[in-house]
Design a protein that fits this description.
The chain contains 10 helices and 13 strands. It has 300 residues and is α+β, with helices and mostly antiparallel strands.
C-alpha cells in the first residue's frame, strides 16, 4: 500500500473500513509523519507508532544494501552519439549532467576528459548505460591489499549520503552508525512536484515523471550552444558540449509569448533538470568541502 502523505486521512479510512488493522498492535515508522500522525493512528486504528530515527535507519539500511545486496548500488554512464556510422561508445568521463540522481558510487579514478569531437554530442537522454556495483566486494578487495586496520569497510568511508525526499539532506558517514548531517537543500522532490502541479495537469508523481520522459528541455532551457553557436571553437576551449544547460528556463526570456510551442512534457523535463542539477551541484560542493570521494544518492 503506497500513498502520498497528503492522502493520510483517506488511507487511514481505507485501512479501517477493510479491517486491515485488526491484527496490528505496533508498527515502526520514520520521518515527520511518524510524529505528526502518531496520535491519530492510535486513536482511529489502535496502532501504536514506534518512532525510529530517520537518518539512523537510512544509514543502517544503506549499509545492509552495500554489504548484502550486490548490484543494488549503481551508476549511469553516457553513450557518445556521432554523426558517422561508428557504434556508440560508453564513456566514464562526463561532459554532461546525469539525470535524476540514483544511488551510486563515485570512486572511479578518471582520466582527463578527451577533446570534444566536433561531430559528436553528449545527450542527457543517453545516460542510460546502467552499471551495477558490488560495493562490498569492491572495497573488501581494496582493503585486503591497502588496509591493516581490521576494518573490512575502511576503504569505503568516509562518504556522503544524499537523501532526496520533499527536501534534501546531506550526511557525512564515517562508519557504521557513525554519521552527521552536514548540509541540505530546500530544493528537492517536493519542489519538483509542487511546480509541476502548477504548470501541468499531472495527477500524481509517477505521471509527471512519465510526462518528463517525453519532453524536450531545449525548448525551455538556454543551452551553451544557444550562446556560443553549435560548432564554435569556444566550446572546445570551455570543454563543454553545445547541448548542456547554461540557464534553466532562460530561453523563455526572449520569446514574445513564452508558452508558445511548449508542451507540458517539455516543462516537466526542464523542471526536473533544474532541480536535479542543483542537487548534484550542492552534493559535489559538499563532497569537496568534507573531503569525501564517494557520493551515494537515495530517495524516490
Amino acid at each position: 500500500m503506497s500513498f502520498e502523505t497528503r492522502h493520510m486521512t483517506s488511507a487511514m479510512d481505507l485501512i479501517r473500513v477493510n479491517d486491515l488493522h485488526l491484527n496490528i498492535r505496533q508498527m515502526g515508522a520514520t520521518g515527520g509523519g511518524a510524529h505528526k500522525y502518531a496520535d491519530e493512528w492510535y486513536k482511529l486504528l489502535g496502532i501504536l507508532i514506534q518512532r525510529e530515527d530517520e537518518l539512523d535507519s537510512l544509514v543502517a539500511g544503506l549499509q545492509f544494501v552495500m554489504e548484502d545486496v550486490p548490484g543494488e548500488c549503481y551508476t549511469f554512464k553516457p553513450t557518445l552519439e556521432t554523426d558517422c556510422t561508428d557504434k556508440p561508445t560508453d564513456h566514464s568521463n562526463k561532459h554532461d549532467e546525469p539525470p535524476p540522481p540514483q544511488s551510486h558510487d563515485d570512486n572511479t579514478q578518471q582520466a582527463p576528459p578527451p577533446p570534444l569531437p566536433s561531430s559528436s554530442m553528449y545527450h542527457i537522454d543517453q545516460w542510460t548505460h546502467k552499471v551495477q556495483r558490488d560495493i562490498a566486494a569492491e572495497y573488501k578487495n581494496n582493503d585486503n591489499t591497502t588496509n591493516n586496520n581490521n576494518n573490512n569497510n575502511g576503504g569505503l568511508y568516509p562518504y556522503l549520503l544524499v537523501t532526496i525526499g520533499t527536501g534534501v539532506s546531506i550526511l557525512r558517514v564515517d562508519g557504521p552508525r557513525k554519521h552527521e548531517r552536514v548540509s541540505g537543500s530546500t530544493i528537492g522532490g517536493g519542489t519538483y512536484w509542487g511546480i509541476c502541479r502548477l504548470l501541468t495537469t499531472a495527477k500524481d508523481f509517477q505521471e509527471v515523471l512519465n510526462l518528463a520522459e517525453r519532453g524536450d528541455p531545449s525548448k525551455v532551457d538556454m543551452m551553451v550552444g544557444d550562446i556560443y553557436g553549435q560548432n564554435s571553437d569556444a566550446l572546445e576551449k570551455l570543454g563543454l558540449p553545445a547541448n548542456i544547460v547554461a540557464s534553466s528556463f532562460g530561453k523563455l526570456v526572449a520569446k514574445p509569448n513564452p508558452a508558445e510551442g511548449l508542451g507540458e512534457e517539455d516543462l516537466a523535463h526542464a523542471i526536473l533538470l533544474m532541480v536535479t542539477n542543483n542537487i548534484g551541484q550542492v552534493a559535489y560542493l559538499n563532497a569537496t568541502l568534507h573531503h569525501t570521494k564517494r557520493i551515494f544518492f537515495v530517495g524516490n
